[in-house]
Structures are given as C-alpha cells and as structure tokens.
Design brief:
single chain; 451 residues; mainly alpha; 3 domains; two-stranded antiparallel sheet
Length: 451
C-alpha cells in the first residue's frame, strides 16, 4: 500500500496501535494526522516526503495556533512517519533525518529551527550545540558526574536535552530557573512527558540549590500529574492458555523473506515470560550469555547497573537450544560476543524487535476488555510475577518468604519496585484468602476457647 492513502487505512492502523483506549482519546491524534496527510496529498508527494513540505506545514501550524502546538503536533506526526518507514510505506522521515544529522533526540529543537527566520542557520547552530554548553551546563554536568561516581546509572541524555533547551533560549541566563524548568516541561507532548521533564527540573533545582540559595523549587501541576496517572495503562495479565497460544502464533508468524524470524520471535517471547526479562535485556543478549550446561542465563548491563545469573526451566532452555541450532544452520556467527538475536543486517534493535513482537500479539488475536487493541510486551513480565505468586500459593509455599528471591530474579533494587507488578487476579485473591483462612480459623477458635 502506498502513502498517502486516500482511504486513510494506514493512519487508522497506526492510531489503533498506539493503545490509547477509547475513541475519544484517539480523536485528537487522528485529527492532526488526517490534516497532515491531506496537506501532503495536496502537495502531490508520493513515497518521498521532502523536508520543504514538512517545513511549510509547520509554518502553517505556527501561523494558525502557536509554536507550542506546532511542536506537539510535529511530535505526533514524526511518530507516524517513523511507523510508515518501518512498515515500508515511506522511504524516509525528514524530521528523523534532521534529528540524526543534528545529533539531537528532541523533535521540538528541530521544529523551532525549521520555523525560524533562517532555518539553514538555525539547523547549523543546532548541529554545533556543545555538550552542556548553556550557562548552567557546567553545574548540570557536575551533578550528573557526581551521581554516576556514587554508583547510580544516571542517563545524561535527559539532562543534555534540558541543557540544549536552555542553549536555544537566548534569554535563558536572565530567566528564573523554576520558570525555565516549567516551560521545558510544558513543551512535552503528553502528560507522562510533562512529568518526566519536570522531574529533571526538580532534581536539578535541588542540586543547584546547594550552591545557590536563590534557586526556587519547581512545583508540579497536580492536575497534569493526576492525568498522567489516569492515562497509565493497567497491565493485562495473560492466562497460561493465552501464553501457549501466543508462543504457537510466533512459530506460525508469516515471514517468507526471513525464515529464521518465527523461531527468533518465539525465543524472545519465551525469555520475556519464562525469565521475566525486560525488552531491553532481551535484545542486548549475547550468544555467550546462554549457559546450556548450567541451564542458566547471564543478564549484563541491566536497568539498575546490575549483573545477574538466572536459572531457567528445562522447557525454556530446550526452546533456546532449538533456536541456537536454527541460528547456527542459518549461518550466523557463533562467537560468544555476537548478538543472540540477529538478522541479515545485524542484531535486532529495540524498536524493531518491539514492533515485530507487537505484530505477533495481534496475529495471535489476543484481546482485552479494556478497549485496548491487545496486551503489551511488558505485560509478559507482569504475567510472570503474578503466575509465580499464584504457583507458590498452590504449592503451599509462603510467598512473603520468597519475595527477596523474586525481586533479585527480576533485577529490582528492593521490594517496592516488585510490588508494581503485583496485579491482583481473581485466582491469586482466592488463593490468598484460602491461605489466610487456614491460618486465621484455628487462631480464632483458640481465642474463643480461652474466653
């Protein structure tokens, strides 16, 4: 199918895959994308979308509303264009190409450059933005380095994006820090993005306040925070039957141009459920991380700067062994440091693997009753925790005594991180009630006898 498609089938498919829930939540994004697609159709563009067309559309958005709204709409559009590129309906996303050329992850920075009086000069300056080059850059860099030296996995990209925002604001040195932080957060395209950006500002305000007592704490807007919590997607706990159906669907997934892909996706699902791995941990695995002789798996460079070795069940190891044999027969390198999951062009990137696994979820026909198109990949990790707790109850094991083992297996720092995954299902609640009844009834009878 070519894009732009007059029936808008691709547009609707993309919006449905965003898992926004109700049609009311999807409507604003559909409206923005429909307007953009009709603009592109009127320009007569086909397959190749030039930068100039995007620039004209952005200028029109600024003229009709504001720069802030143009940024928000551009963030929606660029996600759609990225999806079209992955699906093969578009040769390239011009906004993504500019971000790559300027070495910037921020769509907002590129948009501000494109709608400026001299876009070429603005893009040139954007490419030349130094690392932590704002007036507050040295102090921000010192904070990041101090936290990293203390042993925290501190991702400096979040702080560099804030610093780049400061560099693009000529009046930043004369503005109060808390106002700049709130303006930076307000430019986010979603309530969750607002909360994430404001968190950066609040952390920096606290750090900078140690050196400058004039720094005012950054306050959160409770309405937006509540909206972010309201929109947070509740996990979908898959049943054992649904897991089995999903694994069978992965092996049947049509992939005529990549014969190894079905068993690759099957192995990814096995690790996501049987070992409760995060998607990032799955794609970073190396061949040497699989220890067939010990029935275990090494997880390196995890979310919390940890290394862990996980024992796996015999059936999970058998699935991995079948995958390794198929991988070797396909001619992929067998060196220990080679990516475990790979294709003709190299190892699977996070975005590519996530997209393919989501396609398998839809191919398996898994649905939920919450208005979403289906469960997420991360819901397999939630399902792993709930099923493990349920099984402990079935076996008569005290789950509380096993929780330290569980959070260690998951790679969490403490119990609080694991509690997020404790979704109460009907069976889990019933098992817990039975356990309580077994303990409480004799105790109550004993107390009655004593009275």
């Amino acid at each position: 199918m070519t894009w732009p498609d007059r029936e808008e089938q691709l547009l609707r498919r993309f919006v449905m895959e965003l898992n926004l829930g109700s049609s009311r939540s999807r409507r604003p994004r559909e409206s923005v994308l429909r307007q953009f697609q009709r603009f592109v159709t009127a320009c007569g563009e086909d397959q190749a979308l030039p930068q100039h067309s995007v620039q004209v559309w952005l200028r029109e958005q600024v003229r009709c509303s504001s720069l802030k709204m143009a940024v928000v709409r551009a963030q929606t559009v660029t996600r759609f264009l990225d999806w079209l590129v992955i699906q093969g309906h578009l040769s390239a996303n011009p906004i993504a190409m500019l971000r790559q050329r300027c070495r910037r992850q921020s769509t907002a920075a590129v948009v501000r450059a494109l709608v400026s009086d001299d876009p070429s000069e603005a893009l040139k300056k954007l490419r030349e933005l130094p690392r932590f080059g704002s007036a507050l850059g040295p102090a921000i860099r010192d904070h990041v380095e101090r936290m990293q030296n203390l042993g925290f996995r501190y991702d400096e990209k979040r702080f560099r994006r804030f610093d780049e925002f400061l560099q693009t604001r000529a009046d930043a040195p004369s503005q109060p820090f808390h106002e700049l932080a709130r303006e930076y957060a307000a430019s986010a395209s979603s309530a969750a993005g607002y909360v994430g950006r404001l968190k950066v500002g609040r952390v920096l305000a606290k750090s900078l306040g140690r050196l400058n007592s004039g720094i005012v704490a950054v306050q959160r807007d409770p309405m937006i925070v509540r909206e972010a919590l309201r929109l947070r997607i509740r996990p979908c706990i898959l049943t054992v039957e649904e897991i089995e159906s999903l694994l069978r669907a992965a092996l049947r997934f049509p992939s005529p141009n990549a014969p190894l892909r079905p068993i690759t996706l099957h192995a990814m699902f096995v690790l996501a459920y049987c070992a409760g791995l995060r998607m990032g941990e799955v794609v970073r695995l190396r061949v040497g991380d699989i220890r067939l002789d010990e029935c275990s798996l090494d997880i390196r460079e995890t979310k919390f700067f940890k290394y862990r070795r996980l024992p796996l069940s015999a059936t999970a190891m058998a699935a991995l062994q079948r995958y390794l044999e198929a991988r070797g027969e396909a001619g992929f390198p067998r060196e220990a440091d080679s990516p475990l999951f790979c294709h003709r062009k190299g190892g699977y990137a996070y975005m590519t693997a996530n997209h393919l696994l989501r396609r398998v979820l839809r191919f398996a026909g898994l649905k939920t009753g919450t208005g979403r198109t289906g469960p997420r990949i991360h819901d397999l990790r939630h399902s792993f925790v709930v099923h493990r707790m349920t099984e402990w109850y079935r076996q008569g094991i005290d789950p509380q005594a096993k929780l330290p083992y569980l959070w260690t297996y998951l790679g969490h720092r403490d119990l609080h991180s694991t509690l997020v995954y404790m979704t109460i299902t009907q069976e889990l609640l019933q098992r817990a009630n039975e356990r309580f009844r077994t303990f409480a009834v004799p105790a109550l009878r004993a107390s009655e006898v004593q009275t």
